[in-house]
Amino acid sequence: MSSKLSKLTNLIIFILFSSQVISGQNNIYNEWYTPVRNKFLKFIIKNDSIILTKQSFNLNEESKYSPEGLFKIESKIFKDNEYSFLVSEKVFIDKDSINEKTENKIQFKTLTFNLDVLSNKFYMSINTLDSTFIDKESAMSFLNAKSTNKFRIKLFNKNTIEEEALKKDFNEISLNDYKKYLQDIIEFDRTYKLNRKYKFNYIYKESVIRDLISKNGYNSLVSGRTIEKIVEKYSNEIEVKKLMEEIAAASKELKN
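and the corresponding structure tokens:
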């Protein structure tokens, strides 16, 4: 009896896990957002293409931004909730200055996303944003050789944006909560030291800052100016000054 029960339990666990994996693969084909200053950077992932564009924080507004990247999906590698895409894009090359014909050139990139099915959190590895290759073979070699990068950008979908908006107003953050937020930045820097510079460092920093705001119970989807006002509001507090000095020292260490 216990043996049958054990087999039944294992079967149920297998079915649940399988359904989560299938659901995860379906869920990645969506519109994903990460906040940058006063707007969202938006990834539209389709079955055959990925579009990179921008969107205002008000998703009901029609986007006024042109696409910044139009990528054709050439290959996919899906494994353990990590979703990697080998994509191609046309790049305009102006060779007039060297008396050669102007042409469109095809280049290749790799884009890797990580989906946490249980929490519905979606991330993008920043190292893949830096990757550019002249042929498919080099890009595929990079995908097969790389390990998951721990430096990731958190992405939202429309549902998680709505959930985030229900949190406390960041404009009303208390001094104690603000100090806790600064301490979290220091602890994060100690744990996840960024040992090289990426082209998209600024997006990564934005993502970390806003994720820590969110973890302290506040809506992180606010304008950059709103965050600056809070910095100014508490800038003369002695303990805040000390914490800001620690953050500045860590930032200087990275630059050196």
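(Above: one complete record from the training split.) The helical segments are 2-27, 126-129, 136-145, 158-165, 175-191, 201-215, 224-233, 238-255.
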